[in-house]
Fold this protein.
Amino acid sequence: MLDYLRSHRGNLLHVLDPFKVPIEQATDKARALSDLEFPALILASTDWENFEDTLNRYIERIRRASESLPILLHFPPRVGVGMPLVGAADGLLYPFLLESDDPYFVWRSYVDTKERLAQTASAWSLKPPEFIELAALTFGDDARSKSVMGIDPVETTAQHLGTLSWAIKTLGLDGAYLYSRYAKVPNETCAYFRNRLGPDQLLFASGGVRSAERARELFTAGADFVIFSGALECDNWRPVLESMVRGCRGEMQRAQHNPR
Amino acid sequence: MLDYLRSHRGNLLHVLDPFKVPIEQATDKARALSDLEFPALILASTDWENFEDTLNRYIERIRRASESLPILLHFPPRVGVGMPLVGAADGLLYPFLLESDDPYFVWRSYVDTKERLAQTASAWSLKPPEFIELAALTFGDDARSKSVMGIDPVETTAQHLGTLSWAIKTLGLDGAYLYSRYAKVPNETCAYFRNRLGPDQLLFASGGVRSAERARELFTAGADFVIFSGALECDNWRPVLESMVRGCRGEMQRAQHNPR
């Protein structure tokens, strides 16, 4: 999945919440994304319960609608459980929450998850999804992320951004995932990480992307993938999706050839 | 072991290299350290081979000479092997080499080691040693550490030291181990980390400590444990050991009550 994503930079990605979006709508959307040549579909939610059953069923239905669309998981880990995952998914965006005040969400959940996988390896009928290791950074006040994962918003001073990019490089992560639940990822911060990440590292930008115009800004600021979710949470999502894609085709093409 | 070490701050510690110091000398030294109320003995070396056999035999002999002296391991991990360890030891100072250019030595070896332990848990007749997780920082040029573990010397600018203490806090490590193979740990850097570490975090300082005077400097700079090795690598080690202890008793006592 990592190599696949590296060779599919300069693309929009859509996030579906399997605990919120009815499966019939999800399969319609997956088909539409496939037709529009989206390189993958992300399933994500801050909340989850009955994870394996729900996700296995959900993914099975999506596969039937759109066989070849790779599926990525993006969920927060939970203390005592580790990262929830199912073998039916192709990849998993693993968040290293560098701004969390709880080391479990910074990195220890990863050790926990790997230990659990090592113990249960023989019980897996499918290979676990490939982990794409990303520094997950949130921008703007976000009481929800604070209460679930102890995350403070990123302080965007030059010194602190320097510390974060040192950490991404030193830990050897696969890239960064910039997110804002209620505010927006500053374009200049996106550009900052583009300049600091290595040529093999991936940059995802998301949060409140509801228009082609906003997506264009993030591609122009160096994002490899611009992610949107809520923009399609309406009955009339097809024209919204089509206008998103149409409205930033040029920027996507340019982003595929961004110098890194 | 972590709680034990926390309640035994303000002490000298001696390092024995089990691949260099003959076992007869090691048992004599262990007995002497016990008599002088050293809180533990560290076994360490940059090189190792035939680890388990050598260490199990070595530790067995030391235990016979000095039953109650806790034994800590301090070795570098190796790609493809993880961290070498034996259940006969009580603790293991796990180095997170934050200045390594190879993420394996920064943190991935820890995941590797934990995965291996999870897979082999049932085969362990003794509990694995308790891991004490320490940021391991080296000072001064050190071609040996560079070639074995990709480690660059710590840049002692305020900004970079700030980055390192951010990392120690963010990762939730148990403390820091400052080391210099050929130069010396700057006293002011030791003091810097003392001020930045939390009250529960431990500060070890080592490298070229050959006199009570040097040990006093490091205790005064806030080290919880001052570690010496080569000073006793001579036939006449008893008076050297005794003068080390005698020469910094006052500083050790003060270090036990250092504000943190």
